[in-house]
């Protein structure tokens, strides 16, 4: 039997100092990433139950009528509430944009410039949305007639706002508040039928 024992390399290759250096740097970076990850995760767990909430606080149908030419005119007042229930960090909101629609037809866009909500407080935005006259095709005309008869009309409200709040000195948590709901009104007195779905908290 022939032994196939090969002679071990006796010549030790010296590791280049640069390789050591790179290895140490990589290790430090890896540890730093893990530590930052843990801190952000804990911060998130602590703060997450208090994510900012965007919701419709109140609304009113000020005008809903159509003329003989078949043009629908409407005006709606919407009070949007931005709440920061966090007691430790104030929240910044940006990219706030909502679309108000009627049967899929866009009526208006509600926007807000970036703003801050301090700790444990909230801010109301008061929108008075006046539509351009909406031409009614036969389908829409029928929907309007049925709504008038039932004294019940629904508008769509959909959009989002981007909230951001600082977690210590390390960074910030970003969070999108989404809203997608129907605003229901009694036409005769214009009163709003509150819906818990008109809140970014509703899931
Ligand atoms: C947060 O606000 C609520 C209601 O406004 C108040 O009762 C509570 O004491 C506040 N908490 C802090 C820590 O300020
Ligand atoms: C508006 O009318 C509806 C239905 O007739 C009624 O249920 C509601 O209480 C009224 N709201 C106000 C503020 O009068």
Would you kindly provide a written description of the structure presented here, covering whatever features stand out?
The chain has 203 residues and is of the alpha+beta class. It folds into 2 domains: 16-48; 53-202, Immunoglobulin-like, CATH 2.60.40. It contains 2 helices and 10 strands, in the order αβββββββαβββ. The strands form 2 sheets. Strands 3, 4, 5, 8, 9 and 10 form a 6-stranded antiparallel β-sheet that branches. Strands 1, 2, 6 and 7 form a 4-stranded antiparallel β-sheet that branches. β1 and β2 form a beta hairpin. The longest helix is centred in the first third of the chain and has 31 residues, at 17-47. The N and C termini lie far apart (75 Å). One 2-acetamido-2-deoxy-beta-D-glucopyranose binds next to loops.
Which secondary structure elements does this structure contain, and how are they paired or packed?
Blueprint: H1 17-47, E1 53-66, E2 71-84, E3 91-102, E4 105-112, E5 115-117, E6 121-130, E7 134-135, H2 138-150, E8 153-167, E9 171-185, E10 192-193
Antiparallel strand pairs: 1-2, 2-6, 2-7, 3-4, 3-5, 3-8, 8-9, 9-10
The protein binds 2-acetamido-2-deoxy-beta-D-glucopyranose (2 copies).
């Amino acid at each position: 039997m022939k032994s196939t024992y090969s002679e071990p390399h006796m010549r030790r290759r010296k590791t280049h100092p640069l390789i050591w250096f790179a290895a140490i740097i990589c290790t430090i970076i890896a540890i730093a990433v893990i530590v930052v990850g843990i801190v952000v995760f804990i911060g998130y767990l602590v703060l997450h139950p208090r994510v900012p909430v965007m919701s419709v606080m109140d609304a009113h149908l000020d005008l809903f009528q159509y003329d003989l030419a078949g043009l629908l005119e409407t005006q709606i007042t919407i009070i949007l509430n931005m709440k920061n229930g966090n007691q430790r960090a104030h929240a910044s909101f940006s990219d706030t944009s909502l679309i108000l629609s009627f049967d899929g037809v866009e009526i208006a866009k509600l926007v807000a410039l970036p703003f801050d909500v301090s700790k444990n407080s909230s801010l109301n935005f008061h929108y008075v949305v006046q539509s351009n006259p909406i031409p009614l095709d036969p389908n829409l005309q029928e929907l309007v007639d049925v709504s008038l008869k039932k004294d019940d009309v629904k508008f769509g409200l959909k959009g989002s706002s981007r909230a951001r709040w600082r977690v210590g000195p390390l960074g910030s948590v970003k969070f999108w508040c989404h809203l997608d709901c129907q605003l229901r009104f009694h036409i005769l007195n214009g009163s709003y039928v509150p819906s818990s779905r008109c809140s970014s908290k509703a899931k």
